[in-house]
Automatic annotation (TrEMBL):
InterPro entries membership: ABC_Gly_betaine_transp_sub-bd
Top-level taxon of the source organism: Bacteria
ABC-type glycine betaine transport system substrate-binding domain ranges (all copies): 71-334
Protein name (Swiss-Prot/TrEMBL): ABC transporter substrate-binding protein
One annotated Gene Ontology cellular component of this protein: ATP-binding cassette (ABC) transporter complex
Biased composition regions of type Acidic residues, renumbered to the chain: 29-66
Signal peptide: 1-27
Record region (Disordered): 28-77
Length: 339
């Protein structure tokens, strides 16, 4: 009996010893997780370094502005030089990569500047003194300082949401022209010389000269000139030129840079009392259409445009009847503005 009990106890003791060894072996298993490790973190997939979604690239401001702005519309007045300048501006802007539309021969300043105010025209060729006189409703006093006129124009245009760019050296004023025969007959050299004989003479020109201050009102106010008659024709165009050639009129309102004056040996009467202000050529642009590319292109045109250049250009369009678009392209190419 005793032997039987001893064997059972020995068997139980052996079993317990085996279990203890097994437990110790499990505790020392090199494949077991380190108790300091976080099993949850190890079981999760690796996360990206930046857990915020990538934002799309911002569009380039210049590109976005060009897409939103749409085409630039270049306009002009209804006389040859303005149409020529409009073509020059349009081609220069196209070369700068802008989409361009044109609306030429719109009419007088009273019409085309209103079109700009209405948003139908973005760019116009203009003349410093005449535009300033228009904006001040004839309140412009005679000034010979071109820089002062330009500064005044900047201020006036700002009130209309329009920007004036750099002026050209070239200018083209309203002038009063007679034939050599008329000048000799009446001994005419200046506008002051007209005063005692104006009652015997007929003047002709653009219809707006009837109301503009540098037209009939100014001639009477500054010089005391009152003509026998005024014939409404066109703005320095073929009607006025033909009327002077055929003696239908005695005094023609033309532009001082028109080549027809020197071509016919006509006499441009000196504005000795300073009625007509400086008329440097300038591009004017609606504020909404202004961009760096546009500004750079048009300022480059102004920098190249001298009085001699303007006279040569007008010679080709007005006397040789060349296409103003082709003349504009030739000149821009010569100046290196267009390739």
């Amino acid at each position: 009996m005793w032997c039987s009990r001893t064997n059972r106890a020995g068997g139980l003791l052996a079993l317990l010893l085996a279990l203890a060894l097994l437990a110790a072996a499990c505790a020392d298993d090199p494949l077991e997780e380190d108790p300091d490790d976080d099993p949850v973190e190890d079981d999760e997939p690796d996360e990206p370094e930046d857990d915020e979604p990538d934002e799309p690239d911002e569009p380039d401001d210049g590109d976005a502005g060009a897409e939103e702005a749409g085409p630039v519309t270049v306009g002009s007045a209804d006389f040859p030089e303005s149409v020529l300048l409009g073509n020059i501006y349009a081609l220069a802007l196209e070369e700068a990569g802008l989409e361009v539309e044109t609306e030429f021969n719109i009419g007088a300043r009273e019409v085309y500047f209103q079109a700009m105010q209405d948003g139908d025209i973005d760019v116009l060729p203009e003349y410093v003194g005449s535009l300033l006189n228009h904006l001040t409703e004839g309140g412009l006093e005679a000034e010979t300082d071109a820089e002062e006129l330009y500064a005044d124009l900047e201020g006036e245009l700002a009130e209309h949401d329009v920007t004036v760019l750099e002026p050209a050296d070239a200018q083209n004023q309203n002038g009063h022209v007679v034939t050599a025969e008329t000048a000799e007959e009446y001994d005419l050299e200046t506008l002051s010389d007209l005063e005692p004989v104006a009652g015997e003479l007929v003047m002709g020109g653009a219809p707006e000269a009837v109301e503009r201050d540098d037209g009939l009102p100014g001639l009477e106010r500054v010089y005391g000139i009152e003509f026998a008659e005024f014939v409404e024709l066109d703005a320095g165009g073929p009607l006025t030129i033909e009327a002077l050639e055929t003696d239908e009129i005695d005094v023609a309102r033309l532009f001082t840079a028109q080549p027809v004056i020197r071509e016919n040996d006509w006499v441009l009467l000196e504005d000795d009392q300073g009625l007509v202000p400086s008329e440097n050529l300038v591009p004017v642009v609606r504020d909404d259409a202004v961009s760096d590319d546009l500004t750079e292109a048009l300022n480059e045109v102004s920098a190249a445009l001298t009085l001699d250049e303007l006279l040569d250009l007008n010679q080709r369009t007005e006397l040789q009847n060349e296409d103003p678009d082709l003349v504009a392209e030739d000149w821009l190419t010569e100046q290196g503005i267009v390739e």
